[in-house]
Amino acid sequence: MLRVWGFAGVCIVAANMALADDIRVDVITDDDTGEMKFVPAEITIQRGDTVTWINRQFGVHNMSTYPDGFPAGATGFASPLLQEEGERWSHTFTVAGTYDYHCIPHILMQMTGRVIVERTSQPDEQNLPNAADIEAYRDQVTVFFDPEDFIDLPQRVQRNLMEGTQNGAAGANAEE
Ligand SMILES: [Cu+2]
Fold it and tell me: Using an 8 Å Cβ cutoff, are 76 and 63 in contact?
């Protein structure tokens, strides 16, 4: 009887240790429904925390912030492609605010996620993409989509692909 108790105690300690600082988002390809998703799609963490995305089965995915999808003063991210089961990628968040990201190959399947670091951002606190941000994003998207097909992409993606139409800069274009 004592031995059984001792064994159970060890298991509980081990489980708690594994959970500490283990902030995980599963990258899911659901073969039954055809759904591709990040689970959980939204998480709230603290500054300094590291999030690890884990590909749960074979399937080509990545995690990229929209150029206007992270707080000004922070850096966005663009992970390499994950493919094999168990492949993972981590990012450490040091600036509070909202980080909206998506999987570039599955833009059309609305494979999106959000990380909130301590609190959500006000819209005017988000990064105002410059030409270099937009060019880098364009490079990511054109790996999977022809520029002539950009018109079919979700609005937020299109907005981020076009220089000079961002937030404050929109006024200049509105005069056309
Ligand atoms: Cu994907």
Answer: no
